[in-house]
Design a protein that fits this description.
The longest helix is centred in the C-terminal third of the chain and has 21 residues. 39% of the residues lie in helices and 7% in strands. The protein folds into two domains: 97 residues, no CATH class; 136 residues, no CATH class. It is mainly α and 287 residues long. The chain contains ten helices and four strands, in the order αβααβααααααββα.
Length: 287
């Protein structure tokens, strides 16, 4: 069991992770996990009067989007009133795991979906969840979760953190290893991505006051995983969550784009954080 690092100075807390990936900014250029071919009856909620000759448009759900963002995107794509998809999520009887408690976060699978003029929010959300169940129910996912001593739902939660925290796809495995290592040692995860989720924001700045937020998603104050995923992870993040590389890393920080430093030494991590702050300060001055 490793000891926790010394308390931080009042004010802005030293960075223990790459903080707050900007998941709120979404464009069509983001990586798409898969193309889902949806039968017309599934798209329209079983409306047999729908013409099958209509050419569908496409709706892209990028990896890492939060459920709230998916709802807003679905509302816009279907031309329905704001909040319609959120309401549908509560009434559509989505086939979610019991551990989700009816919350589809993590199970709105990121992919490219065809959309017809008569597509309903309930039908589209149901297909996203069904697709997630198919992908996450694969033997390799189930076996990987057992191997790591967690449930499939917990694995989806880990993958959502990996998706939010990793600077590059190549970093995902190491980020997953940090999560598993901290859980094994009984250390709080101290991930800004979970705190940002609690505060419904995305930022690189976390203050000492932020880390005192009263929320089950505050992994500074509470040990273990947050109660639900914090976004909807893709295939790469799930692969990283079930197959993290071997390593003793406990800390990481992205000093510059493409330069994420992983270490099990708090002293070394503090030096990396200092370099990050210096680079960021220089960039702000230049701006």
């Amino acid at each position: 069991m490793m000891n926790e690092p010394p308390p931080a100075r009042p004010g802005r807390r030293p960075r223990l992770t790459r903080r707050g990936r900007l998941v709120l900014i979404v464009t069509a250029t983001l990586v798409v996990a898969a193309v889902v071919l949806v039968p017309v009856l599934l798209l329209t909620g079983g409306n047999s009067g729908t013409s099958t000759q209509e050419a569908p448009t496409t709706l892209v759900i990028p990896e890492g989007r939060r459920a709230s963002q998916v709802y807003a995107t679905v509302d816009q794509a279907l031309g329905v009133p704001a909040g319609a998809a959120r309401k549908a999520a509560l009434t559509a009887r989505l086939k979610l795991p019991q551990a989700a408690g009816g919350n589809p976060e993590g199970y709105l699978f990121p992919a490219t979906y065809p959309v017809l003029s008569s597509t309903t929010p309930a039908a589209l959300l149901s297909y996203m969840v069904n697709t997630a169940n198919e992908r996450f129910g694969a033997d390799r996912i189930i076996d990987g979760a057992k191997r790591n001593g967690v449930t499939v739902y917990q694995t989806v939660t880990i993958a959502s953190i990996v998706q939010a925290e990793a600077d590059t796809a190549a970093d995902m495995g190491k980020v997953a290893r940090v999560v598993h290592n901290r859980l094994a040692l009984g250390m709080p995860l101290q991930m800004d991505s979970t705190l940002n989720y609690a505060l419904n924001r995305s930022t690189l700045d976390t203050t000492q006051a932020d880390t005192k937020t009263d929320s089950p998603y505050n992994t500074y104050e509470r040990k273990g995983l947050p109660p639900t995923p914090i976004g909807n992870p893709g295939e790469q993040a799930m692969h990283a969550a079930i197959n993290p590389p071997s390593g003793e890393w406990l800390y990481f920080v992205t000093v510059a784009p493409g330069d994420t430093r992983f270490t099990n030494s708090y002293a070394e991590h503090e030096k990396n954080v200092q370099e990050f702050n210096e680079k960021r300060g220089s960039a702000s001055d230049a701006g």
